[in-house]
Specification:
360 residues, mainly alpha, two-stranded parallel sheet, two-stranded parallel ribbon, 4 strands
Length: 360
């Protein structure tokens, strides 16, 4: 893999980066607080993990009709999306705790979704964070089935309808990962990315297979054994849980990078801007003042701050966003902010429609 280099000759950009880092460091020093999780973050983790596990325990232990069972599956989907965004995400970045074992345990909450931590760290921490919105390197803007997310990828006739059908395919994301994880692991090995993580393909393949068998044995096997629900009812509940989680995760991720004002690049040439400035140009914040949304999505509506400071826990992003926006304005660097969830969702759908028609 040939890495893209970020080379800026602009003095203004270098000064912006130095000033930004200084301002953020001063914020933590002045307030005497840690960059990692606080007690509110710990309590939130308990609530989100419980939102996933408690409905599952109820399904297994309390006699209920199919409709109540389906409701529990929907709540589990909401819970597991919350765990992914609000617990696992910080832990995988090492932003939850200064103790690595704490981060490792909480990163493992990804296994509750049937997915794989190593794949996530390569796909998200390495590729997405380093090469944000760069076609061919950032897998977040790769085709999602028949959905075109990059202006630099091939345009097909079907794409003109994608703003209508995207919602269905977004809902398949986590189910697809159950099998896609194996091909992705092989791909990362070929790219030399497993080696950079000090991992062996065969060992990781076996570990992944065992974890997925355990996951399916618990999430499908236990209801089959302990409840009167039929196999098709259990499989429907399993699909609904994943569909709900996938819809939430997909839209939150895409509303930060595939929106109006977020630029995209191709991997044919080096980027002539500083890496930090590139993050601001390719990323958007949204619904800054919606505290409930921010709580649930793990601060992913403060995506600019997350990309600039991935090692800082998301509980600090609201305060950091004011610092980043102010510093960006001082150096005339763009800062993309959508005022509300609705505005960000609308902007994503507008961009999807544009990507269904336009050539680069």
């Amino acid at each position: 893999m040939i890495p893209i280099r970020f080379t800026s000759t602009e003095k203004r950009e270098k000064e912006f980066v130095a000033s930004l880092k200084k301002n953020v460091n001063e914020y933590f020093k002045k307030n005497g607080i840690s960059t990692k999780a606080n007690i509110q973050m710990v309590l939130k983790s308990v609530v989100l993990i419980s939102t996933y596990i408690v409905p599952f325990i109820l399904v297994l232990t309390v006699p209920m009709n199919a409709w109540l069972g389906l409701f529990c599956c929907i709540v589990m989907g909401i819970g597991i999306a919350g765990v992914g965004m609000g617990v696992m995400h910080d832990a995988c970045h090492g932003a939850y705790s200064r103790k690595q074992w704490v981060n490792d345990i909480l990163a493992g909450s990804l296994y509750l979704l049937g997915s794989n931590v190593l794949n996530w760290k390569i796909q998200h921490n390495v590729l997405h964070h380093t090469y944000t919105n760069i076609e061919g390197l950032d897998e977040d803007i790769e085709h999602k089935g028949p959905i075109r997310l990059s202006e630099n990828s091939k345009l097909k006739g079907l794409h003109k309808f994608q703003h209508f059908y995207a919602v269905f395919f977004y809902g398949l994301m986590t189910v697809a990962m159950l099998t896609n994880d194996f091909t992705r692991l092989r791909k990362y090995s070929k790219m030399g990315l497993l080696k950079t993580q000090g991992k062996d393909l065969k060992k990781e393949f076996v570990k992944m297979l065992v974890r997925k068998i355990v996951y399916l044995s618990v999430i499908i096997g236990l209801p089959l054994w302990l409840t009167p629900f039929s196999i098709w009812q259990i499989l429907l509940g399993f699909f609904v849980m994943h569909w709900v989680a996938s819809i939430i995760l997909s839209f939150v991720f895409q509303m930060a990078h595939v929106v109006e004002g977020a630029s995209q690049e191709d991997s044919d040439h080096d980027i002539k801007t500083d890496w930090h400035v590139h993050q601001l140009r390719t990323t958007s914040d949204f619904a800054r003042n919606n505290r409930l949304l921010s709580w649930y999505v793990g601060g992913l509506n403060f995506q600019i701050e997350h990309h600039l400071f991935p090692g800082i826990c998301h509980v600090h992003y609201r305060d950091l966003s004011l610092i980043v926006e102010k510093t960006a304005a001082e150096y005339n660097i763009p800062y993309n902010l959508k005022p509300s969830f609705r505005a960000a969702l609308r902007s994503h759908l507008v961009r999807l429609k544009e990507l269904g028609y336009e050539h680069h």
